[in-house]
Amino acid sequence: MSGQGLGGIKEYVFDPASPEFYDEASLAAEERRVFEVCHGCRLCAGLCPSFDILFDRIDSKDISAAELSGEDLHAVMDACYYCKLCYTKCPYTPPHEFRLDFPHLALRHKAVQFKKRGSNFSGRLLADPAGMTRKSRPLAPLANAVNRSKPARKLMSALLGIHPEAPLPPVASRSFTSRFPKLAKPSQPRERVVLFTTCLVDGNYPGLGEALVAFLAACGVEVLLPSGQECCGFPSFDTGDIESSAAKARKNVALLYPYAKQGLPIVAPVSSCAMALATEYPLLVAGEEAKTVAAATRDLFDYLAALKARGLWPTAEPSPLGEVAYHLPCHLKQMGVGFKGRDLLRDIPGTTVKLLDACSGHDGTYGIRTGTYEASMKVGRKLFNKVKESEGLVATECPLSALQIGHATGRQAVHPVVLLARAYGIEVSAND
Ligand code: SF4
Ligand code: SF4
Ligand code: SF4
């Protein structure tokens, strides 16, 4: 089945509606076929724990992929945290006849496991971060204090499977959606754009949403916010709960389609959420509406760069930002739209941008689950060292990577939109 994609890979091997999708024998046969190709290719050696486990299990036992046990298959697939980095290496993705799609194969594996075992209390909570944040909001200061308390975190670890040291995003006392009506709009808009808020910005980082709306207003762009948005559904993917992801996707598609049909662009301040709309929704929701929403979804900085090229840009003289260490989120590399956020910052006189090309290891719930936290910190070590060696500001387009970077290095990473707003003298509000 095909998804639209923001760029990069254009066709995915993932069809939950097909009769074999949940068939264990068919899945195991496909895993052994793919692993044999990977073992011959080895381009992804050292890329992530999945490939380390795969090559180690085959090499140490001196066997072929066909001889891997069911436990071996599970160990490889379970270690995938869906960063999609292997797409940037793989010469065998469709339309190549090998039709390799390693990340979606891992998702299918998790979906089959989920179907067999169902979910537990911790799984259900982790799959619904928006719901958790919504429930905590009336007691936001208390929730944030609990998240910082060592004894409380030990209890959470036992009850919820969240590692006691894993950083958790702050709960904001007012959501972005509730603040939005009071935000300034351009008096004579020259263009309109639809905002898919993302649950992270809505419940945890509303200040980032405000900075984006203010910056777009300074460009002469009015932001439209369809009400009733759901989380994109990615966290349910993590647990293999395809049906819950699809239910959220259907709701968001129904909400966004009327705008997409008018030709309005859709942007999201978190690149992985934009990826969900642009690449996963056509795989989860049948029909033209999901494809139309996917096609309308733009990478935020690709959209901003296009505004700038058309002269829709703040007129103020920007202030220099000095040195900026710019982390590239893995999902962005897969989009195939270049690194436009980096380029926009680099255009500001008196600003030097250095790319930090390494994974933060956060990737959804991988960075917080008790069983994967240590591995996630290990994955992120290269990035953390680069951040520690850097001077000046640290930027990342991914708020979860920012959280991970802050936790590991003590340096606060800022979203590039916030830096753009600051450079152009646009007031950025507090996040609470
Ligand atoms: S998606 Fe990321 S974690 Fe999964 S196999 Fe590919 S590189 Fe590894
Ligand atoms: S995913 Fe593709 S590039 Fe990576 S090891 Fe397998 S065949 Fe090679
Ligand atoms: S990918 Fe975006 S919308 Fe989905 S859970 Fe994460 S922050 Fe929320």
Would you kindly provide a brief summary of this structure?
This protein has 432 residues and is an alpha/beta fold. The protein contains 21 helices and 7 strands.
Keywords:
21 helices; alpha/beta; 432 residues; 7 strands; three-stranded parallel β-sheet; binds iron/sulfur cluster; 4 domains
Topology:
Blueprint: H1 24-41, H2 49-61, H3 70-78, H4 102-117, H5 121-126, H6 129-136, H7 140-148, H8 150-160, H9 176-179, E1 191-195, H10 199-203, H11 206-218, E2 221-224, H12 234-239, H13 242-261, E3 266-267, H14 271-284, H15 288-296, H16 300-309, E4 322-327, H17 330-335, H18 340-346, E5 351-356, H19 373-389, E6 393-396, H20 399-409, E7 413-414, H21 416-423
Parallel strand pairs: 1-2, 1-3, 4-5, 4-6, 6-7
Describe this structure in words.
- The protein is α/β, with parallel strands linked by helices and 432 residues long.
- The chain has four domains: 94 residues; 39 residues, no CATH class; 130 residues, Glutathione S-transferase Yfyf (Class Pi), Chain A, domain 2 (Up-down Bundle); 107 residues, 3-Layer(aba) Sandwich (Rossmann fold).
- The protein is 51% helix and 7% strand.
- Helix 20 links the parallel strand 6 and strand 7.
- The protein binds iron/sulfur cluster (3 copies).
- The site of one iron/sulfur cluster has 12 residues, from helix 10, helix 12 and helix 14.
